Amino acid sequence: MEDNSFSLAAWLMDPKSNKTNLTEHLEKLKWLLDPRTSDSEKIMIYRKLFFANPIIPVREPADMEKIIHYIKNNPDFKYSIKKITPNVMIEALERMKNMDINEQSQSLDEYINNVKQTLPFKM
Fold first, then answer.
1. Do 69 and 90 have their domain in common?
2. pLDDT for 59 beyond 70
3. From which domain of life does this come (predicted)?
4. Does 80 map to a domain?
C-alpha cells in the first residue's frame, strides 16, 4: 500500500507546507496510526493529512478501511516516528544542493534506494 501524501518530499514541495509545522504533521500521522485513536478521529486526521497534494502520481491510493481494520485487528501494532533533528534536515538539504543533473532527474524510488545505500544505518 502506498500513499505519497505522507512522504516528506511531498510535504516539503506542497505550497501549503509553509503553513503546517512538520512536527505537527508527524504527530497527526502518529495519531492516525495509533490503535487507541477512534475510527472517526482517524478518518478526520486522514482527511487533514491527505489534503496535501502529492508531487508525484500515487500508484495505489491508501485504503482507509484497510488501514483502520489492520490497526484494530493487531493490538500489538507498533509504529514509531523517529525525531527529525535540524542537523538531519541540514544534511539532507546539503545532499540535495550538491546533486548533479542526473540525480535530479531520477525517480523518487531510485533516489530513495540510492540514499538508503549511503546511510550509515539500516532502514
1. no
2. yes
3. Bacteria
4. no
Q: With beta carbons less than 8 A apart as the criterion, state whether 58 and 3 touch.
A: yes
* Predicted TM-score (pTM) above 0.85: no
Residues 61 and 10 in one domain: yes
Beta carbons of 3 and 46 less than 8 angstroms apart: no
- Host domain of residue 50: 4-73
Helix axis angle, 22-33 relative to 39-50, nearest 10°? 140
Better-predicted residue by pLDDT, 62 or 35 = 35
- How far apart CA 87 and CA 85 sit, in angstroms, is 5
Distances (CA, A) of 7 to 20, 40, 56, 74, 93: 14, 23, 10, 24, 16
17, 52 Cβ separation under 8 angstroms: yes
Tell me, yes or no, whether 112 and 60 share the same domain. Answer: no
90/113 same-domain check: yes
The tally of domains found in the chain comes to: 2
